[in-house]
Specification:
The model is unreliable at 211-241 (pLDDT under 50). The chain contains nine helices and two strands; from the N terminus they run H-H-H-H-H-H-H-H-H-E-E. It has helices at 14-54, 58-87, 94-97, 104-124, 126-135, 139-145, 150-161, 165-184, 190-209; strands spanning 224-225, 231-232. Helix 1 (14-54) runs antiparallel to helix 2 (58-87), helix 1 crosses helix 9 and helix 4 packs across helix 7. The chain has a two-stranded antiparallel sheet. By secondary structure, it is mainly alpha-helical. The longest helix has 41 residues, at 14-54.
Length: 241
């Protein structure tokens, strides 16, 4: 299915992606707010349980931290995929939201590598850190959305951001500004500004990844027909990292 939120490269600008983000939010706001509240509640619950366990047993506390980390990864992946599904105009169900859970190992390894790269960049100087954070900003999204490996996701993000780093940096500042406004409205405004700005970023991601910015990034599921003439879009599972 072709995304309804794709913006042609020549028409990409901050107002355009924010407008698209707002359009998607208006259509999916009950689902998006529901998942946002669910994530907040889950985080508070895990933090509360963790605090109580810390007082009981060091071994049990370590085990809970491990479980909590895995749950946090899955929830974070699910939320990103919710945003992608919404921006693509697709139906959002619990089954589809967690359908990318099998990518957790690649997602974890990708985020660990990304953290190392950013740490090195910021240790050297602030500017290299900012440069790398923009260059590889789409890595987590690619690892969830596409069936590609960790190193391929870094390469693809680099292609998608080539020649656009200053533009993306300004967009990031714009997102921060919008959420500061949401925070000033008694903090309640964040329930709107966070999903809208997040959707705007996903719209930007989809626009760049699906407009021919790299053959690997735009890999489509091949359409085949079986002997009965039924259309099939199934592809064998990929386990590459």
């Amino acid at each position: 299915m072709t995304s309804t939120s794709i913006i042609p490269i020549s028409e990409i600008n901050f107002n355009a992606i924010i407008s698209k983000g707002w359009e998607v939010f208006k259509k999916y706001w009950p689902t998006l707010l529901g998942y946002t509240v669910l994530i907040i509640v889950a985080h508070l619950l895990m933090s509360g349980i963790g605090a109580m366990i810390d007082q009981e047993s060091a071994g049990l506390s370590l085990l809970f931290q491990l479980i909590s980390g895995i749950v946090s990864l899955l929830v974070g992946m699910a939320y990103i995929y919710v945003l992608i599904l919404a921006a693509e105009g697709k139906t959002i169900t619990l089954e589809t939201v967690f359908s990318r859970s099998h990518r957790i190992v690649s997602y974890l390894l990708g985020n660990i590598l990304l953290t190392i790269v950013l740490m090195v960049g910021f240790i050297l100087l602030i500017v290299p850190g900012i440069y790398f954070s923009i260059k590889y900003t789409f890595v987590p999204y690619l690892l969830i959305h596409k069936n590609i490996g960790v190193f391929e996701s870094f390469s693809m993000s680099a292609k998608m951001t080539k020649g656009r780093k200053w533009q993306l940096f300004l967009y990031t500042l714009g997102f921060v500004g919008i959420n500061i406004i949401g925070l000033l409205v008694l903090g309640v405004g964040l329930l709107i500004t966070v999903p809208v700005s997040s959707l705007a970023f996903v719209v930007l991601y989809l626009s760049l990844v699906q407009t021919g910015e790299g053959d690997a990034a735009t890999t489509e599921i091949p359409v085949q027909t079986n002997e009965a003439g039924t259309v099939s879009t199934e592809t064998p599972p990929q386990t590459q990292l």
